User: Fold this.
Amino acid sequence: MDLHCPAGAGTTEEDNIWQQQTLPVGNGFMGANVYGEVCRERLTLNEKTLWNGGPSVRRPDYCGGNKRTADSGRRMSEIYRTITELYRAGKEQEAAELAEELTGEEEGYGAYQSLCNLYFQFDFAREEVSSYVRELDIDTALASVSFVLRKTKMRREYFISYPDRVLVVKMRAEGAEKLDFSISFPAADEERALRQQLGKETVTTAADDTIALSGHLQDNGMRFYAALKVTVSDGTVCRKDEETLAVADASDVTVYVSAATDYRDHYPDYRTKETEKELAARVQNVLDQAVRKGYESVKRAHIRDYQSVFGRVKLDIGQGGAAEIPTDELLARYRSGAASQQEQWMLEALLFQYGRYLLIASSRAGSLPANLQGVWQNRSGDAVRVPWGSDYHMNINLQMNYWHVYSTNMAECALPLTDYVDALMKPGKVTAQCYFGVEHGGVSAHTQNTPFGWTCPGWEFRWGWSPAALPWILQNCWDYYEYTHDLEYMRAHIYPMMREAALLYDQILTEDKKTGRLVSVPAYSPEHGPITAGNTYEQSLIWQLYENVIRAAEILGADSDRVPQWRRTQSRLNPIEVGESGQIKEWYEETVFESMPQTEREHRHLSHLLGLYPGTLISPEEKEWMRAAVVSLEQRGDKSTGWGLAHRINAWARTGDGNRAHRLIGELITNGIYPNLWDTHPPFQIDGNFGVTAAVAEMLLQSHSGYVHLLPALPGVWKDGSVSGLAARGNFEVSMAWKDGRLTEAFLLSRSGGTVSVQAEGRKATFETVRGENYDIMKIMEERR
Ligand code: FUC
Assistant:
């Protein structure tokens, strides 16, 4: 199976409607897409843990995809040792060829699965409907549809509550017409999936006012249970047939849905071990509680919970109130150049906040992290049909999913990520032993990861091998501490992971004889170019790992015996080299641009620029490297896929070029999103949504170089504006306003005290802060003039 099949391959008309037109709601655990059809309304429903793959009676030997021996019969760790020896002997070509044997299994990788659909079948005709409006209000996380049917106002509302763990659909008829419809709840199985034995075995039971869906996945026996209950305030609801309920003569109907599986992120079995009955009882209990609580209370709790996170950040770039025109039209106008300045701002501000909405809807404490499609998926079957299995890709995608989580003040939404990476530690240690033969600790994971500890290097070296992916995702985890200063959390959950990752590199880095540099071998820059001994991608990420683990150890007073060695190692990594074209080299063997084989000028990955963003290696103070980074960015160009553009925007923001960053936001809006504002690779991939939100924050506030930089890359077109609630490293919160591109007011709230340096308008001030105090930055700057 070639996972890197042509982009968007297999996307059907039906998929396109789903990914381009429907409205997503979610609570991290469940996701749903609202079609907004009037006569036959449809929702697709997801449960985040429903995955094929992993341990199964079909795969008694499942071991995270690790392959002990290559096809040649040699052990992986032996092959690895030989590769290092070949490099040492200067036999680069032979080493690179042998590296391609470092692969894992394909069997057991699996894919995320769509759970089921919800259909509401009415018997009126479309022609009888007028004044149709479909809406997703991201201030309240409520989707709604309203229309008039023969003078009766019909209103439907949809949300998924995090506090109550249910999907709620409310339908109301205000007028003479009543609500008469049937409800069905079929499992989402595609024929091909069933043929491949990758579908579901399901029993559907309708009784009185409930439908229950009970079953397991054919591939791995994972149990799932989903239940739906209908309440009516007038009229009736009853069983129509074994799979359908009928509602009649009602004017106010509420439908509650809850679902769960017996998955647990726990190595090596990944199951709760609940019986079918226990699982059903768990879901039923959640459902009953929500029904008892009632629609109004569930809705109130949902809005309160959602707004407690979403409401922290406000952005005003001149967009004014809510748009008068539908979003898809706004988008069309933006693309054709017909949008007014204010309409352009509307869309840009909306896209920024949408990335926050989508993460709150797809990553909440206790859930798995947001995957390649967040929590939303309409497909089932293998990892070709479900693009990339909708997995946890760690050569940029999972990282990008969380780039905005701290800066836009939603740190609690990152907890699923830390938990997930933590759960990779045990299988990752097995992978490290298997492939590197290490004996003194160390952990490793590569490009593709699943909820079943799939930490092997994939089944093709040229996209699968990427041990630096783990240090990279650990940057995201480390940032939790940088932004929250939660020392105890860092001690218990983050430091141990970074330490384990460092232990691997303590053992495997080898000296490049020509340069004296300590390198990782074999090294491959994500999906691009030749296999070499060390490259900028690997070296930058390993450098950053040591940088962060040293800082963490010092803060905690831990591992004082190791820190000096870590420092020495870090100082010999020399990640950055400037080439003859003035560029940041992607490989150390590179001379001028495109001097290396198998390179693509406009490649989507910016792997050699990770020290610029999201890393801290190429800072504004490193002027020569910064200049070279700009040269490299120019070389890669402004054309890319959704996430490729989002990465470029963040990178340009770090260079301080707000206008270029803004131009690329325009490019993303023009070529990288669908009418429902979902990012496209294609197909739909959520990373670009999150990445662009991070980029807007990065244009307004940066804090990676030891100081809080206000308006570091403000584009000329956002000339007047304000933002409140952005977060900065050191656990500060910033609110500010600007006019004609100049800062007019700025406040910094200190959430845990400590020293801060602030840079604004070309000036810098360093001062002590007291926890809970809000500081008037303009005044402080003025006093220090
Ligand atoms: C990375 C990218 C691909 C795709 C995949 C999910 O490997 O190189 O283009 O986005 O992730």
In short: The radius of gyration is 27 Å.
